Amino acid sequence: MTAPQGSADGDAVLRAEGLVHVYGGETRALDGVDLAIRRGERIAIVGQNGSGKSTLVRHFNGLLRPTEGRVLVEGRDTDGQRVAHLSATVGLAFQDPDRQIFAGKVRREVAFGPQNLGRRGADLQAAIDEALVATGLDMDAQTNPYDLGFSRRKLLALASILAMGTPIVILDEPTTGQDARGVERIHLIVADLSAAGRTVVAVSHDMRFVAEAFARVIVMRDGRIVLDGTPAEVFAESAWPTLASTFLEPPLAARVGARLGLGSTPTDAALEAALAGAG
Amino acid sequence: MLIGGYLGPLAIVLLGVVPAAAIAGVAPRLLRISLLLTLPIAISVVLVSVFTRAGSHVLFNIGPFDATAEGVDFAGQTLVRLLAISTSIGLFGLTTEPRSFVLDLERRGLSPRFAFVALATLEAVPAMVERAGVISSAQRARGLDTEGSVRARLRGVLPLVGPVILSSLTEVEERSLALEVRAFGRPGRRHLLWQIPDSGVQLAVRAALLLALLGSIVARITGSFPSLP
Amino acid sequence: MLELRSVSYRYAGYATEVLHEVDLRLSDGEIVGLVGPNEAGKSTLCLVASGLAPASIGGSLSGTLTLDGTPAAGLATHQLAERVVVGFQNPNTQRSGIAATVFEEIALGPMNLGLAVEDTVARTREAIARLKLDHLVLRDPTRLSGGQAQLVGIASLLAMRPRHVILDEPTAQLDPAGTRLVGEALRSLAGTGTSLLIAEHKTDLLDGLCTRIVVIDGGRIVLDGPTSEVFDDRRLAGLGIEPPARVRLGRLLGSRGVDPAVMAGALTDSAR
Q1: What is the rounded distance in angstroms from the CA atom of residue C87 to the CA atom of residue C106?
Q2: Residue A246: CB atoms within 10 Å
Q3: Among A50, A177, A180, whose Cβ lies nearest the Cβ of C242?
Q4: Dist. CA C219–CA A121, nearest whole Å
């Protein structure tokens, strides 16, 4: 086993090395991905449908296996580790809540994950309570999940993963279908996870959410990483041609900031600060 | 032993079904499927007929049961008839594309609603299998162990089966609304996009088969055909 | 024109009304955006405006829905289908389940209307072209990604050439390019005289697309007016609706005395 590269990557909880994934014998969904995600990072992966972002994150909990290359979770190769085993370390919240809900009550549904990980008694109840409060479902603990609207069921699916208390949390399109209040809630959840030292990885189409909630953005195209940096770096004017090649657009704040010669202002707040600084 | 009793069914199989299967390229599969289907029935037919058929020529006996030549004859004739039926049905199943069949029925007057139900039923199982796959991934990602002890696997039944049923049921209403939006409930015929190819040869063969069927019914009624002993 | 007058609606078996005294008018060629927090009644309004509530799902409706002068109350669902279509956000339920290819899937609607084969094919090709789905025509509809399935679902509705199109979160599964594609397709569709009602959270999309915005909250219409007017309304934030970036940043720039031309320029950059 080779020694870890430099101190920057030494604390990588998630690592992909030369990752290639081919499915159906011919579709090259991942075309050689090298990525290191450090403990406690807040990282968003963006790209068109088909860019490989969902395929990539599914390697981190073992749902998909590399065709070539390898994937390491907390320093250990995922090869040979079962999905259920990896789920104690990596929690993946799926996009479609209706493909996992089976319980008649919200509370029972949220209990499933932590129970599988061996949590019992007061510890289990505390984990469930925390997850329900974070997702705004605490008043609906005894409600039937199908009496909740679709967007709240999505929050339920998220609560089911949060309750598992995994050190790494992966969110697949967390803001789709959410209204403004729902998106705010997701922001808070991401911030709280990060504050607790947990690593957060999100796959998203929402450029504004990505620019505002994450410290690192990875842009994918055709199974490869084409940009990797802070929101300011990734949405800076110099990166626009690369973004355009993936049919992505920088947030409006970035465009306005560029026109005003204020440097890279990927978020409303950054633009405001830059204006205040320039004024 | 009436040779005639065997001739008819064997002629159908050897002169009709097998050459047709060979032309269609499904002969090996057909033989395999027909044998698999007829074997269980064949065994019980043989056992019952050989030993219980009334007859005078006893060949051997096992305990109180006499195996008669008449019994063997009866079993034999029944078996060839079974073979004729199973190979014919098998040939139909292996050479007919279910979708084309249903659509052609609609062209000939089957109500579009029945056609829809038939086609949707054909698709139902693959769709469920796909759904079950996604559900399994989601539950395994929540720590469900699908490879552990029997007890663990039993506990996994509800989280795996539950969402399949629940999501199918909850989607039914929206699904049927979506169908109504696309006018699936409209009475009257549709002009189908699909052309099911037909040819003079196929028409002639179908006509000949129909005549043969009518002819054999008439022959049976008038007594010219040998019936089972 | 599609018109709802004083419409209140209650689902079958439920005591509470989900829509109260709703007035809504959709003129030919109009694109109207419907915004509101979740569970405010957007989806119900879409169902009611299509006539499916109560014609298909029951429930009790007071007030009237009129489609191009004809009251919807007496119409059977297939008669409604000839005039108005509604699309839902779940691509799985939009799929018929009986088509072998995407082309067939899209053709099913016009075929069901009893059209001649040439008309069916023409309308199908038109819908495919509008949503740029040529590369998917021969694919198995069950083997599409969520985004592709959503586009096929929209095309399947457009192929019916309805006069009124109602879409409930049509871009939910789509990436930014797909969202832009749908926006362009809907804009060109409105140009042919079709009226559109689009329920969406993406106010940026609606900002560039709609002539009018209707805001619903608690089952009531609280705002109904031209896009710029409604999106500039300060009450939106209190209603749980995020105004488009243009408005948010416009206010920021305005408070700093920045020339509005800068914003206009930045917007044209992105509308490219």
Answers
A1: 13
A2: 20
A3: A180
A4: 42
Nearest chain B CA: its distance from C267 CA (Å)? 37
The Cα–Cα gap between C154 and C87 comes to: 7
Facing B162 at nearest CB: one of A94, A96, A102: A102
> Model-level pTM?
0.87
pLDDT > 70 in chain B, percent: 96
Touching C (3+ Cβ pairs <8 A), the chains are A, B
Antiparallel, parallel or unpaired: β C212-217 and C31-35: parallel
- Tell me if residue A13 falls in helix, strand or coil: strand
Query: Residue C155 in contact with residue C167, Cβ under 8 Å?
Result: no
**In whole angstroms, what is the distance from residue A36 CA to residue A228 CA?**
11
C22: three-class secondary structure by DSSP: strand
**What is the distance between the alpha carbons of residues B208 and B202, in angstroms, rounded to a whole number?**
10
- The answer to whether the CB atoms of C145 and A247 lie below 8 A apart is no
Could you read off the pLDDT of B61-103 as tens digits, one per residue? 777 777 888 888 888 888 888 888 888 888 888 888 888 888 8
Query: CA–CA separation, A121 vs A114, rounded Å?
Result: 11
3-state secondary structure of C141: helix
Subunit contact A260:C258, Cβ cutoff 8 A? yes
Shortest Cα distance from A185 to chain B (angstroms)?
A: 22
* List of E strands, A48-156: 68-73, 76-77, 90-93
Nearest Cα neighbor of C209 from C191, C225, C226, C186 is C186
Token look-up 């002009």 returns B191
- Strands (E) across chain C are located at 2-10, 19-26, 31-35, 60-67, 70-71, 84-87, 164-168, 195-199, 212-217, 220-226
Exposure of A120 by Cβ count < 10 A (0-12 exposed, 13-18 middle, 19+ buried)? exposed
Q: What is the token pair recorded at C130?
A: 């509008």
Nearest C-alpha in B relative to C161: B182
Of C159, C210, C271, which Cα lies nearest the Cα of C29?
A: C210
- In this structure, the number of other CB atoms found within 10 A of the CB of residue C222 comes to 16
Predicted-complex ipTM score: 0.90
| A83 to A37, A45, B142, B151, C136: CA distances (angstroms) | 20, 22, 9, 19, 33
* CATH code for residues C2-83+163-241: 3.40.50.300
CA–CA separation, B214 and B209 (whole Å): 9
Task: Tell me what percent of the residues of chain C surpass a pLDDT of 90.
Answer: 86
Selected residue of B130, B164, B180, B195 to mutate for chain C interface (largest C Cβ count, 10 A): B180
